[in-house]
Amino acid sequence: MGMPTLVTLLLVLPMVGFVLTALVGRRLATRAGIIAVPIIVLTWLIAMIVVYTALSGGFGEEGLHFTLYEWIPAGEFRVPFSLAVDNLTACLLIVVTTVGMLVHVYSVGYMAHDPGRWRFFAYLNLFMFSMLLLVLAGNFLLLFAAWELVGLSSYLLIGFWYPRRSAAIAAKKAFLVNRVGDVGFALGIMAIWTTVGTLEFGEVFELLPEQFHAGEIAPWMLFGIALLLFCGAVGKSAQFPLHVWLPDAMEGPTPVSALIHAATMVNAGVYFVARANPIFSLSPAAMTLVAAIGIFTAILAASIALTQKDIKRVLAYSTLSQLGYMFAALGVGAYIAAIFHLMTHGFFKGLLFLGSGSVIHAVHEEQDMDRMGGLWRKIPVTHWTMLIGALAIAGIPPLAGFFSKDEILGGAFENGFYLVWLIGAFVAFLTAFYMFRLMGKTFYGPSHVDPTVEPKIHESSRWMTIPLVLLAIPSIALGMVLGLPLGEGLIDQWLEPVFEHAQENLGLTHEPVQLFGIDGLIIIGSTAVAAFGIAIAIRLFGFHWPLRGSDTAPRPERVAELTQRAPALYRASFHKWWFDDLNHVLFVVIGGRIANGLWWFDRAIVDGTVNGVGDVVQGAGRDLRRIQTGRVQNYALGIAVALIVVAVYFVIAVAG
Amino acid sequence: MTLPETIPLLGWTWNDLLFLILAGTLVGTALMVVLGRNIIRSGLWLILCFATLAGLYALLGNAIVAVAQVLVYMGAIAVLILFAIMLTQTKGGPAALVFHHQAWAAAIAAIVIGGLLAIVDGASGWPLAGEFMRTSTEAVAALLFGDYVLAFEIVGVLLLAAVIGGVFLAKRDDSPETPG
Amino acid sequence: MSQTLESYLALSAILFAIGTFGFLARRNAIAMLMSIELMLNAVNLSIIAFGAFIPELNGDAAVIALMVMAVAAAEATVGLAIVIAIYRNRRTPLVDEYTQMRE
Amino acid sequence: MDGVPMLTLILLAPLLGALIIAFLPRRYPDLIRGTALLAALVAFALSLALLSAFDPEATGVGGFTFVESVPWIPSFGITYTLGIDGISLVLVVLTTLLTWISILASVRPITDRVKEYMISFLILEVGMLGVFMALDLFLFYVFWEIVLVPMYLIIGIWGGPNRIYATLKFVLYTLVGSLLMLVAILATAYAYASTTGSWQGAFDYLTLRGFGFDTALQVGAFLAFSLAFAIKVPMWPFHTWLPDAHVEAPTAGSVILAGVLLKLGGYGFLRFALPLYPDAAQTFAPLIVVLSLIAIIYGAIVSIVQPDLKKLVAYSSVSHMGFVTLGIFVFQQQAMDGAILQMVNHGLITGALFLCVGVIYERTHDRTIARMGGLAAHTPAYAAAFGFFMLASVGLPGLAGFVGEFLVFVGTFAVSPLAAAIAALVMVFGAVYLLWMFQRVAFGPLSEFLKGLGHHLTDMRPIEVLTLAPLAGLTVIFGLFPGLLLDLIQGPVDGIIAGLTASDAVAWLPWR
Amino acid sequence: METTGLLALAPLIVVIGVAILVVIVDMIRPGDDRLAGVVGTVGLIVALAMVVGVGSGDVPVMGGTYIRDPLTALLDAIFIVVAILTILTAPAYLRPRGLPLGEFTATLLFAIAGAMVIAGARDLLILFLGLELLVLPGYMLAGYAKRDGYSTEGAIKYFLLGSFSSAIFLFGLAYTWGYTGTTNISAVADALGQVTAISPALAMGLALLTVGVAFKIAAVPFHYWTPDAYQGSPTPVTGYLSVGPKVAAFALILRLFVEALGPLQGDIVNVVIVLSTLTMTLGNLVAITQDNIKRMLAYSSIAHTGYMLVGLAAYGAAPAGSPAAEQGLQGLLFYSVAYAFMNIGAFAVVTALQGVPGVTSQIASFSGLGRRAPVAGAVMTLFLLSLTGIPPTAGFFAKALVILSAVEAGGWASVLAVIAVLNAAIAAFYYLRVVVYMYMRDAPGDAKPLSDSWPLRLGLGLAAVATILFGIIPGLILPTTQAAAQVLLLAP
Fold first, then answer.
1. Cα–Cα distance between D362 and E161 in angstroms, integer?
2. Which among E441, E306, E294, E458 is positioned nearest to E364, based on CA atoms?
3. DSSP notation for E118-142
4. Which end of chain B is more exposed for a tag (fewer CB within 10 A), N or C?
């Protein structure tokens, strides 16, 4: 069986799973996952084969590229259904399929009691299909299609519990906000076609730089294209100012949050910008913009995450923040670091979300951290795995997060984006802090759980704990496996070919890491910052020291006091900097007014004119019928007068 | 004794005098017809008016038409009209208000029309107008039964149709009839 | 004067005008009918006048005049019949009271 | 199958059906329904045969195949000439398909005066098919007007409470446009006859196409044609008859109205207005492009606040048809391809949406969005179908709607990025009104109003599924394999564009 | 072929003869309506056969006062068919109201004879007499329901104004005679052909003639009699009045203005254009506001006069003898044919509807007709569509033809074309309103049944078939109309 067939299978299998589950799922009752889960496992196996072949250079320099059929043959505008696999794709495949598979397994347990679970698995399969298409797509339009399809599955899954109005609204919000970005994306694609006349990745990345260097494309045009494309990325990866949908997306079942809104879909933007590096890297302005947006989102989201009460929302904002990190990395030219962080983050954030799901399950669908606490004894597996995740995201060596995050900061510093580096470091501190705030409020200190629920708390089923454990492993080891030795790790070997053009364009030379030089200092610095953040969090929200077996009690009064000290900042953070309220006013209130106004205009003015004409005609008729008085003499006089007129006309105008 | 060729002092021919008299009578009687308050009197004035016209036709040397005028108009039409008047007199005698309220407008319109006609007649020469000549009855008869025989027939039919219809409309029949 | 076409035409014009006035001004159906007769006679007068002064029409004029008289007679017949018929329905000869149908 | 007058046969099928029904006793409504359905299906089958026999490569007569021509009114050179190219063919098949679907969809809702209804529907089909086939301007006009009467009756007799106002508005509005078009047609024919000195071929499309009329006539005639077509499409600001007509029309009526009647306008532009009067077309293109942009955005925004499901879909049609006119009048290959695709897709998708609205209306006798809610839980199959077509209408990739829209975008962008940018905003607005509508109808808890219906609120019946299934299938197929359509229409489109590029705009208009 | 003397007059003689025969039959066997109808119908069919059989030539007969040329033949055929349709459909209305058929048939035949005289007249005197023979019976028919106030009121209005206009018309003729010195049409044409400058008197004559005929065709502002006369008359009479006298008056126009005064067409055309515009616009606008079907159709018939005048205007505006001129006249003639069938048809349906006395002619009485009498409803719809000008009906092609001619003529005439179509759109409103009542409103509980007899069915059928047939295959009569039109153009 040839590689193209295998790659195609990656798309076919989930699709088949979706269709079958959608058709017969309802009859499967409790065993709804019986089709979906195995199919995804199979997909994972195939994906691993493909990944292995790719990373072991099985596809050569250019990677695998093949066309299934001609999708849109519109005259000169021809878009094939073409798939491409290179190392970058491979890296994404690892995350997507692995996390995807684990989430499927986890869902078997998590959704065990939901009547609509068959829909859930169908949607999950649909998502897997869309996401795989997204990473395998060989041209812009196909990628855009997948882009929209993942949006669709995210819409369906966020709104999975549609009887809950908030869920339905959140789903709609996610779709719409994404659409805003997609407008730009679509326009960008059009711009590309009108400039180079093709949409195939390979050809575009060949032609565009050529024409640019040949001076056929002005820098502003290139910047324009990059900007438009970036809009899409901003939307999908929930960067400022389109970040508002992601927190609400937590209305969806937790596995969905883990899979779509942490590990895979939201990374699509990062992947896409990385994929389009030949374009971006040609426009310094674009790069700077990406970096700016990224780092700003990072700090913004982190600042909000500090004060949120809802466990999933904290994670959501942390996701935003981490994605911001990745964009910052892309912006400063540290592409490899970005993808590296994408992968590690995919795993540990997936872990954290699934863990939070397990917690929520344990306390009977309670998400408010103020009503948790002291859970670590009752759900040990969840606790330990989540602790690992927390340490990983905090960037504590030697866990995965440490390596990827460090490469980003290092890259920023190396490439001279000191401000980015500085903020990045601060965000690292915040991250460490709010993660352990989360841990503390959830697992340590006294329990605030509803007493009626308290006794019923128990560890989740195997279906859920096993995936947690499996995800914990990469969260610990992935960094060391791929990142060591620093700067020359596997990840670098894999991805350098992908980004070499970009490196040239940016004029970046990749000099080896000096452990006992500037890099060393940065490493120590960031680690220290993270440790400091953790320390403070522990002092405020408590901790359970595993080895010593002793506890550090939380100190709520201190927290209150601190919030008192900077009330404005606290409120700003707590109200998410009022973005949602702003949007509400702008789009719901004002937009609604405009729409209603236009409708009035349509009825009163446009249609009014039409009916007005009719009324005028009828009115004229009513007036004219009055001349028919019914009196013969009037008629005769009328005739006589008309006769005079005609006669005068003839005698004067005609005669002579 | 013989009358002089022209009337002394005035220098008119006798025909002219006759014309003037007839014309005056014509206009006068016609005015009486349309202005008379009593409709029956109007009818009588109409007869007189017809007679004057007969005179004018004679003056124009058209004997046969003059005769026909007397027979048809005075003998038939006028009488017919008088009968109709008798038949349609409301007990209240002659209607109080003879004229329609638009009489003044009517007068103006009529004067304008008359004026137009008169002016036009005067203003434009009649290219074919020649010397005055009498009309011989034979010629008329020849035409009537020659080229105009079709016309003659049609008039016959016309009168027949008029009579049939007139009889139907005028006759009082008591057949049950529901308005539709 | 009596030998000129214009004078007769003028006379007929006046007669026609009088007829017109009568038709426009009188309320009584029969009076209006009489006015129409006046108008027809005016036409006849001018026709005869043409006949007398235009050689080509000398004979035709008489024929036409006779025909017109016949037509006038027929019109009178029909008209009076109608007048009588409506008088039976409305009990009035005043035309401007026949206004059941209007507008 | 040369020799065989395929097109006439296709026209005859519904015509004969109507005649037969006219003589069927009205005591047996089911017999009448059956006959009507049969006739429509025969027409459909024949059109499929036509499709299979059609060869995109064949040049035929001036690019038209299956041409039949019979002298009709020789003294004026008026002939009965039919013929199709790819564009006509696509629309013919669309018409035959939607007709039998509509008749099927009418089986249950229409119980009163079935006979008249079915006759009207079949005559309507004859008219629509004729418009797409006619190659003689006079014949074209005749069919164009024939369409009017049955639709007038369908809305007026079987419509909603305010049907008479709506149907009179529809007819009069359309009539004003089309009558002026008649003058234009006659003027064109005479212009030809007076130059050539013979009426021979004065109404023959193929003869007139390349004739090159003088500017004054072109401008006048183009404006007259455009008015007629703009009202049918309908273009902003001539669209206000559409919401009324749709709201009052019975479901099947709306389906045909949106599915085919609106396409008559777009087809008219493509087939007649552009090729006959290229210079004038060039001249007025900017104006029409602007109007189209207004229609696209305006229609979408107004749709957002519609309280009535049908009104919402109607206004969305204004927006969607804006793409058609936009795509046509940027005179660009992709855009025109997209416009035609958009016509077909809009026919399928909006037709289906009206069917969906009809399904709920039949149960609730209400279309007020505010009174709906929670259908997804109680009528999952219905909600799924509705949602599917809703998403197709949003323009989701993989479904038909996307390709047409995107091609119009691309083509427009190549000509005027600004126009494309404005048009692209509809990606958001479109999603706003459709998703919001669907959220209010399908999601949330079951509304009190629907609760009140109790067991009357049933899920879709087999017959309803049967009407929607083919549309859904085609929506997917054309989404994945738009080539099926594009291969048919590419030739004609290139022809039209070639004709336009050869022409040059009249200079004396303000915006030139 | 060559037709001479009596042979040329044969159809006319037959019609008159039948008229008299009907009178006699009615005297012999009073009260036997059926017989009168049969005799009349048979006689007319014979006459029609003769019209077809005798064919046409181009030689005037009876001292050059009458001619049977293609135009005569066509017009005669129209008149005879109109008479047949009227006689077939009238009994349904007259019998229930105890109105005798004998006098009706006879009077109608006399009127038709008058129309036929006009059709073939080559002499102004004959023209005038024919006109009178046409209208006098018309007055009587209008007042035929002599017990009915409406009928007699309509009749007297019609009569008084009609006689008034006749006098005016006659005065106009007198002037023409005085100016040209002849009554023979071709001679008049010759004489006028030499005229270089029109004298005031001649201009006055033209004015008087124009007003006279404008009245007869009910052109605005000389239309006042039409609504009252049409509404008052018994419905079948209205049907006849709306077609017979109108078409005959147009025949008069063709013979007088086109043939005799042809050389002056350029001087008249402006008036025609103005009249046409006023006529169709006012007719349609006022028709919209009518609630009485007969009155509405009266105004609509005024509007149709306007459309026919468009053809005449095209003839006048186009250069003499140009194809446009021919198109104009042909359009006028074709329109007359189409109009005859669709309008009589429409009135026939009204007749059927009023088969039972007491059924008012309010449009509301059409309510639910589509359900009560599907066939009648369908046929009425057909006629209304044809009147609107929707294909494929005769009415549509007629409109298309006159509009085409106007477009060809160019200048103001082409503006007239646009006005005409806009008017057609307005007209659609009130025609379709009737359809609304028939199909979209429910019948009142006390709806009376329609009268139904085979002659009525036959008449309706004929009208319907012709309306649809001439719409689908106008080629059937186009050659005839064309030949007729050419006759007029060939005339000096």
1. 61
2. E441
3. HHHB-BHHHHHHHHHHHHHHHHHHH
4. N
Q: Which residue of B has its CA nearest to C11?
A: B23
| Residue D109 to residue A457: CA distance in whole angstroms | 56
CA–CA distance, D418 with A190 (Å, rounded to integer): 12
Contact A403, A480 (CB under 8 A): yes
Determine the distance in angstroms separating the CA of B89 from the nearest CA of chain A, rounded to an integer: 20
Q: What sign does the CA torsion over A358, A363, A366, A367 have?
A: negative
Determine the pLDDT at residue E80. Answer: 97
Separation of alpha carbons D253 and D124, rounded Å:
10
**Is residue E453 within 8 Å of D189, Cβ to Cβ?**
no
What's the rounded Cα separation, in Å, for the pair A324 and E185? Answer: 101
Q: Which of residues 79-98 of C touch A (CB under 8 A)?
A: 95-96, 98
- What's the rounded Cα separation, in Å, for the pair D28 and D413? 57
d(CA A137, CA A146): 8
pLDDT value of position A619: 94
Residues of B in contact with C15 (CB under 8 A): 26-27, 30
Interface test with B, best of E15, E123, E146, E235 (most B CBs within 10 A): E146
Residues B65 and B141 sit within 8 Å (Cβ to Cβ): no
B148 and E110: CB-CB below 8 Å? no
Extract the tokens encoding E165: 């206009």
Average pLDDT of each block of 10 consecutive residues along chain A (656 residues)? 87 93 81 86 94 86 88 91 92 92 90 86 93 93 94 92 90 92 94 92 90 89 93 92 89 88 90 92 91 93 89 91 92 90 92 91 84 84 90 87 87 86 91 90 84 83 88 89 80 84 76 70 86 89 80 82 82 82 85 91 92 93 92 93 95 81
ω into residue A241 within 30 of 0, thus cis? yes
Nearest CA in chain A to B121: A651
For residue A98, what is the DSSP state?
Answer: H
Show Cβ contacts of residue D295 under 8 Å, excluding neighbours closer than 6 positions: D235, D236, D239, D318, D319, D321, D322, D325
Residues from chain A that touch C13, judged by Cβ atoms under 8 A, are none
Q: Please tell me what DSSP assigns to residue D113.
A: S
CA distance E174 to A212: 94
Record the tokens describing residue A264, joined without a space.
């895979």
Cβ-based neighbours of A263, under 8 Å, separated by 6 or more: A95, A96, A99, A103, A345, A346, A347, A349, A350, A353
Distance (Å, rounded) from C-alpha D372 to C-alpha D379?
Answer: 12
**Of the candidates D492, D468, D497, D483, the residue with the CA atom closest to the CA atom of residue D89:** D492
Sort E297 into a burial class: Cβ within 10 Å, 0-12 / 13-18 / 19+: buried
Cα–Cα distance, D371 to D379 (Å, whole number): 16
Which residues in chain C have their CB less than 8 angstroms from residue B6's CB?
none
CA distances from E435 to A23, D157, E371 (A): 50, 10, 12
The pair of three-digit structure tokens given for residue B4, joined into one six-digit string = 């002089």
β-partners of residue A580 are none
SS (H, E, C) D465-476: HHHHHHHHHHHH
Q: Nearest CA of chain A to the CA of E147: how many Å?
A: 20
Task: Give alpha helix (H) positions in D365-454.
Answer: 375-378, 380-394, 400-415, 417-424, 426-442, 448-453
| ipTM of the modeled complex | 0.93
Q: Which tokens hold the place of E303?
A: 């509007």
